[in-house]
Amino acid sequence: MPDPNPTDETRAVAERYARRGGLDRYSYLQADVWQSLQERQRALLKLLLRLGLTDLARLRLLEVGCGAGGNLLELLRLGFAPANLSGAELLPERLAQAQAVLPPALMLWGGDASTLDIVPASQDIVFQSTVFSSLLDDDFQQRLAAAMWSWVKPGGGVLWYDFTVNNPRNPDVRGVPLARVQQLFPQAVMTSRRLTLAPPIARAVSRLHPSLYPVFNAFPLLRTHVLVWLQKPGLG
């Protein structure tokens, strides 16, 4: 069976995002949102320290699916240099939002990231956050993963944050188990950490009291996301 046209999946992704409502649930004013964000930030900082990646201003990082620029703004605050950061975003309206808030020195691309003309082995880190769970076509996932891997320098890696379990209430997304992550990046040396309280539980308990978030999050089985480092073997 021939591979589907990549534009079919990019069009489908745009339609899936258009169906999403209730964007207030992702506002930083929501207790579950800021607590999951801070948890992810702490996990990322610990990962960078463990990897010895402490000179952040010298690291080149490209985010695939940068949305309105929120993650790139976080990385700037952590110490990454604007000239060494870049992002790719499929949806024009989200790309425009990112362009409005990010410094001009930060390069942004629009369109299908798998077709971008990025210099091979030019990035220390290629980052994706909840992008692959919105890609329901396996072949398109593989093409994008191959492109991302080609952009990573030897010794660098793909930084991955996504959820691993399906949401039965949302057919527009699909969990990406760790076995699938390894399949997408078969040459990578993979390390992972489970985090993020399942969002429906997080919203419910945080409405009762924000302090309940860490209580429920202490149970690993209630965490739905993973932060993964997929390291490319170095030269020699």
Fourth-tier CATH superfamily name of the domain at 6-20 and 54-197 = Vaccinia Virus protein VP39
Helix and strand pattern: HHEHEHEEHEHEHHE
Spatial strand sequence of the major β-sheet: 3-2-1-4-5-7-6
Determine the CATH topology of the domain at 6-20 and 54-197: Rossmann fold
The first-to-last residue Cα distance is 40 Å
Structural notes for this entry:
- The chain is of the alpha/beta class and 236 residues long.
- The chain has a domain at 6-20 and 54-197: Rossmann fold, CATH 3.40.50.150.
- The protein is 39% helix and 21% strand.
- It has helices at residues 6-19, 31-51, 70-78, 92-101, 138-151, 178-184, 199-208, 212-217, and strands at residues 61-64, 85-89, 107-110, 123-129, 152-163, 189-197, 223-231.
- The protein has a 7-stranded mixed β-sheet.
- Strand 4 (123-129), helix 5 (138-151) and strand 5 form a beta-alpha-beta unit.
- The protein is globular.
- The model has no long low-confidence stretch (mean pLDDT 92).
What structural keywords apply?
8 helices; single chain; Rossmann fold; 7 strands; alpha/beta; 236 residues; seven-stranded mixed sheet
Structure, briefly:
This protein is an alpha/beta fold and 236 residues long.
Q: What order do the helices and strands come in, and which of them pair?
A:
Blueprint: H1 6-19, H2 31-51, E1 61-64, H3 70-78, E2 85-89, H4 92-101, E3 107-110, E4 123-129, H5 138-151, E5 152-163, H6 178-184, E6 189-197, H7 199-208, H8 212-217, E7 223-231
Parallel strand pairs: 1-2, 1-4, 2-3, 4-5
Antiparallel strand pairs: 5-7, 6-7
